[in-house]
Each structure stands twice: as C-alpha cells, then as structure tokens.
Amino acid sequence: MKNISSATESLKLLADDLQSGKGLIGTLIKDETLAKNFQALAANLSVTSSNLNQRGIWGILWSQKKPAPATKK
Q: Rounded to an integer, what distance in angstroms lies between the CA atom of residue 17 and that of residue 52?
C-alpha cells in the first residue's frame, strides 16, 4: 500500500510540474511558439531523413542542378 501511495504522490508532483510549465515537456505544453517550432523541427528532420535514405549523404549535402527550361525560338 505504501508503494501505491508513493507512486500516486510522484505522479501528482509530476502533473503539477507539467501544469506549471516546468521542464521541457511542461514548456512545450505551455509555450505555443516553442511547440510550433518543435513541430517544424520534427518535420524537417523527417524530410532530411527521407532524403538521406533516398540520395545518401552526398545527395543531401550538394543540391542537384535542375535542367534549364527549354526556350522557344
């Protein structure tokens, strides 16, 4: 019974810290700008990871030249 009481108290303290914005997760919950920046970071990492898998390290470090558009004469 002491373990359950101790675990409940720990969870309550954790929830209180989150609600007050303490720590990384608490800050992400409370700060909308930081949360949006973190989402953008995660999306960019996903794209970079995908490009790395498809093109390798050199393919993402140096951009490939796009062919010049054809001109009408």
A: 38
Question: Is 72 domain-assigned?
Answer: no
Helix (H) or strand (E) holding 29: helix 23-30
Residue-wise pLDDT for 21-55, tens only, equals 888 888 888 888 988 999 999 999 999 999 899 98
Report field, pTM of the whole predicted structure over 0.70: no
Phi, psi angle pair for 72, to nearest 5°? -85, 140
Q: Is 73 helix (H, G, I), strand (E, B) or coil?
A: coil
Number of structural domains (the chain) is 1
66 lies in a domain? no
